[in-house]
Structures are given as structure tokens and as C-alpha cells.
Design goal:
With 209 residues, this protein is α+β, with helices and mostly antiparallel strands. The protein has 10 helices and 4 strands, in the order ααααααααβββαβα. Helix 1 packs antiparallel against helix 5. The model has no long low-confidence stretch (mean pLDDT 93).
């Protein structure tokens, strides 16, 4: 089983266990909303534009609400559990595109619940996450208000944000750096060092792809 499929399955297990009304780290979304988003992402490509383009956001939101209207929560989770669209046909594409997507959304659900703790990840998944973080840092941190130096515990450095001015060092395991760079700064187990004002600005910034 690929890590994308493993994270997908684990996410769906948590969604089934928590039910439709549990909180997530996605602002304004509960678990029902997140399940609908994931189904839309894979099975309604016509509505994906609104995820990134504000002018299309209204249509995307209507399609997402329509999915909730047409599908009971357990049915939506069942659709998430089975890769849809091209991802169901091409496991290699699923692995390339969905490993981080499913990991982050799995953590969005886990970390919104009380008393969560970071998971111990297989070394190859940790390494894969760091590879994606280190190569994508410039993109994920393009809106950072200050320069960022990512330090991975166990080895590795990546840079993002403005090239000049104040810099903040962010230190943690690869998975925690990923959550930070994906805009979940308050729920990432990392250490920030540098100018306190710059660090505060970075914590509050809108990050991610």
C-alpha cells in the first residue's frame, strides 16, 4: 500500500469514528465539510477552480453543499475512501499528488481534537515529506512576511519567504514543518527562534499552496 492510500484509509477511519460534526483545523469546516471537499476535489474537477480562485469560490461552495445534501455523511466518507477520478485509475499519480494532501487533512482532523499527539511516522514517509517540503518551501512560504529558515531535526535546511530582512528559524521534524508551511502554524510542534515580533508575524501569516 502506498503512503497516499494508507493516509487516506487512516483519515477515513477517523472520520467514521468522529462523525459528521467534529471540528477540523480547516477554518469553518467540520468533518462533514471536509469529506465533501475531498469528494469534490477528486470527482468534481469542474468545481475545483474555486479552491484557488476567489471569483469561482461561490460555485465551488454550492457544489460542496450539494454533495452534502445528496450524500449522507457515511456515504461521503465511503467515496473518500475509494480514490476517485484519475487517482482511482493511476495509483502512481495518486501517490504523487495525494500523499501530502491526505496526510495534512488526516492531521487537520486529529489535531482539532483534544489531547492529540504527533504520530511516529515510518522513516520513508518522514523522508518523503521532507523532500516535498524542501523542494516546495519557496512556494508554500511565498506569502511569509519574513524570511524563513526551516531546520529539520535529523538533518536538512530549506529557505523560504523574502530573501532580505528579518529571518525566523523554524525547527522541527519533517511532518511538523509540513503542517507549519501548510498554514497550520498554531498546531505544529516546532520551535521558532529569531526576532520575537518577526516570529509573531510569521505565526499569524497565511501560508500554504
Amino acid at each position: 500500500m502506498t503512503h497516499a492510500r494508507g493516509e487516506r484509509s487512516a483519515l477515513c477511519d477517523v472520520l467514521d469514528r468522529l462523525g459528521p460534526d467534529a471540528p477540523t483545523l480547516c477554518t469553518g469546516w467540520n468533518t462533514y465539510d471536509l469529506a465533501a471537499h475531498l469528494v469534490l476535489r477528486e470527482r468534481r474537477p469542474d468545481a475545483m477552480g474555486g479552491v484557488a480562485i476567489s471569483a469561482l469560490a461561490g460555485y465551488t461552495a454550492r457544489v460542496q453543499e450539494g454533495l452534502k445534501t445528496r450524500h449522507p455523511y457515511p456515504e461521503l466518507v465511503g467515496l473518500v475512501r475509494r480514490p476517485g477520478g484519475v487517482y482511482g485509475l493511476l495509483p502512481a499519480l495518486d501517490a504523487a499528488v495525494n500523499t501530502l494532501e491526505m496526510f495534512v487533512h488526516h492531521e487537520d482532523v486529529r489535531r482539532a481534537q483534544p489531547s492529540w499527539e504527533p504520530r511516529e511516522l515510518p522513516p520513508d514517509l518522514e523522508q518523503l515529506i521532507w523532500k516535498r517540503v524542501s523542494t516546495g518551501a519557496r512556494l508554500m512560504l511565498r506569502r511569509a512576511p519574513v524570511g524563513v529558515v526551516l531546520h529539520r531535526l535529523g538533518g536538512g535546511v530549506a529557505l523560504g519567504g523574502p530573501r532580505g530582512g528579518a529571518k525566523v528559524e523554524v525547527t522541527g521534524r519533517a511532518a511538523e514543518l509540513l503542517m507549519f508551511c501548510f498554514g497550520r502554524q498554531r498546531h505544529a510542534r516546532v520551535e521558532l527562534t529569531g526576532d520575537p515580533h518577526a516570529a509573531d508575524r510569521l505565526r499569524e501569516a497565511t501560508l500554504g499552496v
